[in-house]
Amino acid sequence: MARGLLADDYLAYHNILTYIEDATAQLLRYRADIQAKIDVNKFFASYFTCLKEGKHAIFREFEFINSTPYNRACFVDTFHKCFAALGKKGDLLAIRDYYALVSVLCSDFPYEMLQKTAKIVLIDDAHDCLISFTDFLYSFQLQLYYQEFLEASSNTYQSLLTESHSPRDIVVPTDHTTQVHKEKQLPSNSTLTAAEGVDSMKFYKSLSQLIDKYRFSIPSLATLKEILSASPTTTFYGFLVALSKSEAINSGIGRLPASTNIFDGVESSSLLKVQSVTIPTKQTEEKPSEGDHKSSVIQENLKKPTQSQQTKSESMKTAPKVFTKKSTERARQISTESSSDADSSESDST
Length: 350
What we know:
mainly alpha; 350 residues; two-stranded antiparallel sheet; two-stranded antiparallel ribbon; 4 strands; single chain
């Protein structure tokens, strides 16, 4: 980002005001719910620490997750950390099963987003087929993070496809008048069929114009050109698959590891457990434990400063109504085996 950027443009680019408003709303909500007086300075410090570490998007409403590109990327990263153990075990799941897992982290997440993700991995009529964790994860990241760009590029592709098959006006000069004939473009060596797609470079030039027309996350032009230069023609499905498998796209988003390292450090015998949060207060009736005193946010993997009611490491089921989760029975069945293993290991260590 340019150093000479004005202050207002910098705030807008990083969505700073969005996070300040959200932090203030959370503070006011907890101030009304909790009798103890909240330490405002520590509260904001905890909030923005979570934000910086990308651990703020769990158990939040979809409106907040979808509000900024950074939130979207962090949510996919959180999903990876929570359920990578399933992928390491080699489990193949249907798109409805993945939706159940996503719903554990965001109860109002739209199913339509998962349906669009399935279209990147599978044929349109194959939503009941099983999908590997790796294929789903990177396709899900692409769909969620670049959703506006994908929609705009789909419209662009359809326009080019229609243009390549539409009749052309042929002007035939005569002695007294000019006659206009409609020439139908019949399939030939110079005319593309729907199965063949559209001209790759023409598609690239059309996509490059989206940067000036729209203000949303878009892959770099160098990456798009590299992908589309691989073949003289391209289909939209092939374009989506190439984007989802592109390491340049993944590194540009900057949250998930490379596909070859996706399971590094993941133990297949346990799923990630989310710890509770203690909100810093001016005075508390009971002295916090040593573990709670170390930090006011989740200690190990996920931190969420908005779960402040849980001052004594309560169960996640007692979280605030705004962020409580109604996980489906399918998601519970998927994680039962791994969770039981994790519990047994904890009891042994104790």
